[in-house]
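TA notes. Do not distribute before section.
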Amino acid sequence: MPDQNVPSHRSRDDGRRVGRPRSAADPHDRPDDGYGPYPRDGHATRGYGERAHAGPGRTGDGYAGDGYADPRPGPRWVGPQGDGVIQPGRSTTDVLPDLDDDEDDDRRRRGRRRALVALTGTAAVVAGGAALAMSPQGAGLIDSLLGRGGPDATAPAVTDGSAARPSGQQPSTVRTYTEQNESYMGSRAGEVLKKNSPVTGKSHPGPASAAAETKVTVKTVLAKDPIRHLAQRATFGATPKVLADIKRMGIDAWLREQLDPDKIAPTPAELRLADLKTLRMSIPQLRERREALDADGVHADDETVWATIARQIWSDRQLFEVMVDFWTDFLHVAAYFEGSRTQRASFETEVIRKHALGNYADMLVAANRHPALLTYLNQSQSSKDKVNENLARENLELYSVGVDGGYTEADVRQAALLQTGRGVREDQYVYRPERHYVGEVRIMGFQHANNSAEGGEAAADAYFRYLALHDSTARYIATNLATRFVSDTPPRSLVDRLAKAYTAGKGAIKPVLMSLFSASEFWASVGQKVRRPMEYLVATYRVLGVSAETPAGYQHSNPNRTAFAEGLRQIKGKLEELGQFPAGQPTPNGYPDVYVAWTSAGTMVNGWNEAGNILTGNRKMFTYRKPQELVPAPPATAGAYLDALAQRLVFQKLTDGQRKLILGIAGVQADTKVDATFNGAIVAVARAILASPMHHLR
């Protein structure tokens, strides 16, 4: 692009080029050209505008004209066979990764593997105990979970675009963040989940009273403990400290503190983010130091992802980080795109983090004045003489009213004209009056004379605020918040109340969250959300008490990256392998947030193995608590020790069946005398607890 002087791609220190995350098993993949899925040649025909959504097991989400078609709407849990599909007639143990490579006894290893599959399958890896479990052998897991084999009742409808539109594009048919969630929930597995979700509820004077007065009636394997429930939903994973804080302060006071994150002191790990060289650099500073940073292998887009991971694991501002993740998926700009090295970090800071608990109208206006969004969606290529509709369409379809929000193709065309003049120069936002279309515009009830080129910027800002406060936007954001915090199939009663709170607060986020936490639907939804892969791994680091402190004597050889930064880089690499990392979705619709979008036996096993690696302290640059030290003064018998360890790791009792399975993994009986190492089986036992539904459920 003429305003950028950015290499189209770069190499990682392990020899792989950084771009969109992908699996080597993906037969539809193409070499990373550094540009991502959007056209960068100034032509707006085909490509971007013709993408079509595809869920698991369907082809689509392809970009016509460039030969690329990804069978899923972004990174996915990839199994050992590339798609996680267990072939009929094959044993689970033939296709699942090895769970116990360090065992010499093959028979015992196979037994542990089967026990873990049974623990997470027959014992129900489900939201709320619904019948979504594996069979004992795991056969047909993916088909049964994803509802393959039937017609797709949620296929996108064709819109009324034509080649006569200003940019000549065809209409976009990508699923929005809400719509893609709904498409997954249209599967058979989704129908099962719907039957177990709260249908209705009411508002209470405050969160504490709502918690006290709400009876949990859904079927679930989780303990019906409101403090545990709040800790799991409002953070990236409960810890003994979080639970103790909520008990000590009370639910209302704890939430008030979380909603005022500036008053929460940074943790030692957050202070260590100073190790990341680019984190506090402005766009001009990044441009000025680009060559030196490149020579050292230091890139701001990488370090932004690493910092987000660190905050998710170690920050005490947990609700704020959850909302940062929510908005990152909602108003989504991918971590990597042409220009991301200089632009993406600032978008994280000045748009998402600045407004995550503020006002969405302010966020949308700020986003449309930020070079990262404008570059990502080709807005700098748009002028009054050659209009590009990409950003105009996504402002409607993804970032405000939603695909069913009531806009037409004429609205998209009018919005594209109004947004002309906005662009990027030297990686900074610039408004060029000479490129702005002048003339009256009408968009979804918004009307503006737009009668001067100089006034075009203010006219578009007024339009963005109008969109942000539109009734359809209120409902769209309410639906997504309810999906994130309550259920994959959020009750309409709750969505209605959240939308009203949003409208009454003129886009303010905190009142909407307080309305959500004061709703009986939230407190009744125990066990109704499953962690996505990033959340599972982050929660595992949190509950095991891993410290960001580098142990004395650790030898680190990279002069351009501290041990702490190297550890974060490695965690990001594991998350990329699992299919989800902060802002990792390459397309602008963000990651889906429903269980059936993420099911894969292979990735679950990969996560369990990583839990085992964390238990054994595999990343030596961090400080670990030995697994035999998780329970102070452990009981002398296996059954009692297991009960104490479960309480420490998942904060509740195991079922009798789970207890029996895990004791079997250790090769002991409940009354067997054991030492602090569980007679050498402590890692296997702890890992099995972390493979249970209680740790998989959000």
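Switch to the second chain here.
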Amino acid sequence: MGGVSNRPWRASVAVAALTALLVSGCSGDPERPTPTPSPVGTSAGPSVPAAPPASDPASRASALVATLSDEDLVGQVLMPYAYGDSATKVSAGSAAGNQALAGVDTPADMIAKYRLGGLILVGFSADDPTKGNQETTNVDNPKQVHELTTGLRTAAGRLAAGSAPLLIGTDQEYGVVTRVTDGVTVLPSALAAGAAGDPKLTEAAWRAAGAELAAMGINIDFAPVADVLATRSAVIGSRSYGADPKQAAAQVGGAVRGLQAVGVAATLKHFPGHGHSADDSHQDLPVLTQSAAALQSGAWPPFTAGMDAGAMAVMSGHLDARAIDPGTPATFSHKLLTDVLRGQLGFKGVVITDGMNMPPAMRWAPGEAAVRALNAGNDLILMTPNVGQAYDGLLAALRGGSLPRTRLVEAVTRVLTMKFQLAALPAAQMSTLNTPAHRAAADALAAAAVTVLRGACGKAVRGPVTVTSSGGRDGTRATLTAALTAAGVQVKPSGGTIVHLVGYGDGAKDLSPGAAVTVAMDTPYVLADAKSPTLLATYSSSRASMTALAAVLAGKARPGGRSPVAVPGLPATTCGT
């Protein structure tokens, strides 16, 4: 599942082809015919088997599509969120939220009424840069999530398309965007994996984490982030694997292979590259000013590496790539999604919109936005702000001709093919959650990430130690304190050698001038202003990262990471090459 190329593209022809595209100025006419869909996760080769076996996912999808009504087809391309932590029993407040969103009381009712192809589980934490479009939360702990997903699948099983399992997704990126945090193995951030620089460690960690997602009933993860951190983007930040396209590409490939080996679809996001703008698409429409050639060489290698690793999905971003389709968000750009992503880059899988409840997508009414997104080349409409309006708009456009039936059938066939592919592997049991083996995979990745950017390599701090931090990090301080104590370092409430922690959103004002050691638990840029004689970076505040930091501070581990982004005035590491 995880090792088949999704793209029959060759780098040597991409720039020429893209140049020809820009010169031709193709309009992206929604009436243009669309090709017969290829199976998800396969390359478009010179020949296709004439009689694939009956169990082939693409054949099953095509056969099922032929039996579906217009209403069933439209429902399969919608993947909204819902209010409530149970499929069938919700609070009065959640029922009111679902009524406003979809005219129903419960998530199960929403699935039944609109014949949905999927549902996204949502939630946020204080340091989450995506919290602006998370209207509610319906994840709490693994047992609750498992019961919720079981109920959702029961409801979907009654649909005409019920033989294909419901898509249940979430944004489990690890780091600042992590929906399920309690009772599961929590990996360090993507930037930490970039600092570790070992795709095999990344793959092993994501395989462990993916097995736990599958056990809870989640079969598509909106991860990994394939954006290259070319700017100091606060919304992407440590969600990216780093600033070097080639190194980030290797990490993305590892994450894809790990996830998909255990039956969870990986989603590369946010095409054509959110890290190439410092602006936040949760607030406005970021502009990518780079040339098409610069995007190809600087933004797209992690996407193509993920495709080569077999990624089943790509998420389109609300991004204005001026060199390719100026003024049009990529989510609605036929040039970017159909001509470039599918044509030049050769992606054959499922294209999913970013949240349609974000400002760049809400310039149109939900129905019109859904039609525009599907005509541009998306196959799944994510998080529409009004399910009924999106559904009615798609159905009216299908019957009126502005949404070609071939385009809708192509999208649904891709979605169903992916569903049947995912159903081929049995999910792990709930007993596998947070096991020692899974924690060991996370620990190994976190340990390899710790970086020393100033000071001696691997020198133990002089005890006793006092752990301080910027505001609101009591839990992280407690985790590090426990890890230091376990490593044999005495920790005092005050008066010791100060180890100061800074994290997401912190700046120069959050540093401690008297700290002997300053540790960056998110992007390391803030360390450029730190005066401490020793500067370290973990890029993450996870338990695994704090345990790894404690081992370095105790002199029991060598900090072998290299900063995957440049910090002014500091080397990538002082530990040599």
